[in-house]
Amino acid sequence: MDSSSLCRDLDLVAGNGCILTVEQRAALQVSLVSLKKNHKFTRVLFWGKILGLERDYFIAQGRGEHEMRDRKNLYSLNCMDWVLLPTVTDSMIKEVSGAANRRFKGDPSYVDHTKVTEEKRLAVTVHCIDEDVSVVPRGAFIRRPNGLVQINRSFGGLSDSEAHRLENFVHFSKPKGFKKSIPAADFLDTIDDDIPKGSWSLQFEGVGKVCVLRSLLWLGLTFYHVPMTPQHGYIYMGDGIKNVDLPFML
Q: Are 212 and 16 in contact (CB under 8 A)?
């Protein structure tokens, strides 16, 4: 959810429980502008909120020239003061796996019996959610000849009929397989290939004007797109626990 259109886009997903208080919205509008300036990000997204037992984590994502590679995640407990999350590595993911299905407390320094700090668990959780279920409309980003992945300025939105089909939504993460001789705007994996089948719910809301996708794998991930416009984004508001029982529920 781009910080430059935060309030407008929050209104689009309010019916899905993605709600912030007036005070939180106001604080975010001020602090995210400062965040972009201080860290020299190209743009800043409000990624969402991970619910804690004692305090919640608000997550922001700063992006650079390469939208997919140049990303940094940050967290805040008050919507004003931001701390960089550590860079996630394969060894960190393995280290955190033993505590992956436990609720967060809301204390970054907390260490559970696995000897892993909550801050490290938070970094891995945000990374995994992005890898598994970050979504953009097909064609919204372009890969240039030099390899840079950037916003496709000519993207005018999916048509109403296109927005009804999962094949027109793609993961905004590194493609799983090698794709040869593909158009510059069609280099990402479509979500209709996700396993298990049925892990996405697609609906039209706002009297049919807004396309909304919800992930059943990471409950709390909501994607939105207004067809025939470039307006789109996603937000996560949940407990940070992956729905590992999904294959048995479908």
A: yes
Distance CA 62, CA 178 (A): 27
Q: Is the pTM of this model over 0.85?
A: yes
CA distances to 71, 75, 95, 131, 219 from 126, rounded to whole Å, are 12, 10, 15, 9, 13
- Same domain for 125 and 164, yes or no, is no
Give the pLDDT confidence of 192-245 residue by residue, as tens digits: 989 888 999 999 987 779 999 999 999 999 999 999 999 999 999 999 999 988
pLDDT tens digits, 58-106: 999 999 999 999 999 999 999 999 999 999 999 999 999 888 789 999 9
64 shares its domain with 126? yes
Domain count, the chain: 2
What are the strands of the beta sheet with 83-84, ordered from one edge? Answer: 83-84, 71-76, 57-63, 43-50, 232-238, 221-225, 210-215, 200-205
Last residue of a domain, one of 133, 152, 167: 133
Q: What is the pLDDT of residues 139-189, one digit of tens each?
A: 999 999 998 999 999 999 999 999 999 999 999 998 886 555 566 768 899
Buried b (16+ CB within 10 A) or exposed e, 150-179: ebbeebebbeeebbeebebbbbbbeeeeee
Judge if 197 and 167 occupy the same domain.
yes
Provide the domain limits for residue 14: 3-133
